[in-house]
């Protein structure tokens, strides 16, 4: 296959130099002027988001607070949905953009016991506002991550990889030899599902849109570990049925598209299978075939990472983060990202808004 997609991984696999993090210690000793991307109205992100400067007092910390310096933060679709006003969680305005990222602790309050200066942390909940250089917050609102991770990986850990982790654990008892089917397989969640399933001996059937460089994307997903990869229009055809006849019926279907694509996944499920919807990229409703419900007793469920985080205990969340970080450290899980300096936010935003994105755009707040 062409090498373009493999070159994407090389941008991350070389890891990130962490020596520059040490230069940020100065933020722990004084007030700092921090660059921040804010919005004071809802609408098109390119028209509402603006970078400005704000003073952040990093020395007068409350007893249970910490000061942090942002290291890296992605631009996720949900971040832009918040700006547009179309997301289920909307912060009060004005608001700092960004929900996910990794930061270095630069100061701790007198009562903080579980975190120390130099630790790496990620926000425990959406709405913190990660598109900035420095901030303060309650220590309880952060989770520790290993500083041995590449900064881009740590910045992107809590949403897409954790979603894949939960999807493979919370809806069906899956073991070696079981089969799952998913659409949107070339999404960040989809690629994480492929890698996590492969490590557990679970067979994946992966459906993607027929798009520019479609054949290259299909080959890339096969090389990543996808057992079967096909276009949307191939599903629900006689040839697809013949192909699936050689495999056990899928126990789990993962839907992030909706519309006819979701219906096709439901048709492919075996008896008592489960269709889990965690996204709706087509903006079409999920309609289930009567045959899937009547003949196979298929169950339809939903999943939202933000809701799971609200309902889970801190111990459960820490265990999940540790498990996913471990996969990143041992090579089980790779991410495909591209880095953009925080100072070039406008350019990074344009890149993140392009159609048919393959790599996630990550803002880097450190000088390399």
From TrEMBL:
It is an enzyme of class 1 (oxidoreductase). Residues 43-363 form the Enoyl reductase (ER) domain. It comes from the Eukaryota. Belongs to the zinc-containing alcohol dehydrogenase family. Quinone oxidoreductase subfamily. One of its GO terms (cellular component) is mitochondrion. Pfam families: ADH_N, ADH_zinc_N. Its EC number is 1.3.1.104. GO terms for biological process: fatty acid biosynthetic process. This is enoyl-[acyl-carrier-protein] reductase. GO terms for molecular function: enoyl-[acyl-carrier-protein] reductase (NADPH) activity. It catalyses: a 2,3-saturated acyl-[ACP] + NADP(+) = a (2E)-enoyl-[ACP] + NADPH + H(+). CDD domains: ETR. It is found in: Mitochondrion. Keywords: Fatty acid biosynthesis, Fatty acid metabolism, Lipid biosynthesis, Lipid metabolism, Mitochondrion, NADP, Oxidoreductase, Transit peptide.
């Amino acid at each position: 296959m062409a090498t373009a997609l493999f070159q994407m991984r090389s941008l991350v696999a070389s890891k990130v130099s962490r020596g520059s993090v040490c230069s940020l210690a100065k933020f722990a000793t004084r007030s700092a002027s921090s660059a921040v991307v804010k919005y004071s109205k809802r609408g098109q992100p390119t028209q509402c988001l603006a970078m400005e400067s704000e003073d952040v007092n990093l020395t007068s910390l409350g007893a249970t607070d910490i000061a942090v310096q942002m290291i890296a933060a992605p631009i996720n679709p949900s971040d832009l949905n918040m700006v547009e006003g179309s997301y289920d969680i909307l912060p009060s305005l004005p608001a700092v953009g960004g929900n996910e990222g990794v930061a270095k602790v630069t100061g701790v309050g007198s009562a903080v016991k579980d975190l120390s200066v130099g630790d790496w942390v990620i926000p425990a909940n959406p709405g913190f506002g990660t598109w900035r250089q420095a901030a303060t917050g309650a220590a309880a609102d952060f989770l520790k991550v290993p500083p041995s991770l590449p900064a881009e990986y740590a910045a992107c850990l809590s949403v897409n990889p954790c979603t894949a982790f939960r999807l493979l654990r919370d809806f069906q008892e899956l073991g070696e030899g079981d089969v799952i089917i998913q659409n949107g397989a070339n999404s960040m969640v989809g690629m994480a599902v492929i890698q996590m399933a492969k490590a557990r001996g679970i067979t994946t059937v992966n459906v993607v849109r027929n798009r520019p460089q479609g054949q290259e994307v299909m080959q890339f997903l096969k090389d990543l570990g996808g057992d079967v990869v096909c276009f949307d229009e191939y599903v629900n055809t006689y040839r697809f049925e013949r192909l699936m006849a050689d495999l056990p019926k899928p126990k789990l279907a993962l839907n992030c598209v909706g519309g006819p694509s979701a219906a096709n996944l439901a048709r492919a499920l075996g008896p008592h299978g489960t269709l889990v919807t965690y996204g709706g990229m087509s903006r079409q409703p999920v309609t289930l075939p009567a045959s899937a419900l009547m003949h196979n007793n298929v169950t339809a469920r939903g999943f939202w990472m933000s809701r799971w985080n609200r309902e889970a205990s801190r111990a459960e969340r820490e265990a999940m983060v540790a498990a996913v970080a471990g996969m990143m450290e041992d090579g089980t899980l790779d991410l495909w990202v591209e880095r953009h300096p925080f100072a070039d936010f406008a350019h990074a935003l344009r890149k993140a808004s392009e159609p048919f994105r393959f790599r996630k755009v990550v803002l880097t707040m450190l000088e390399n």
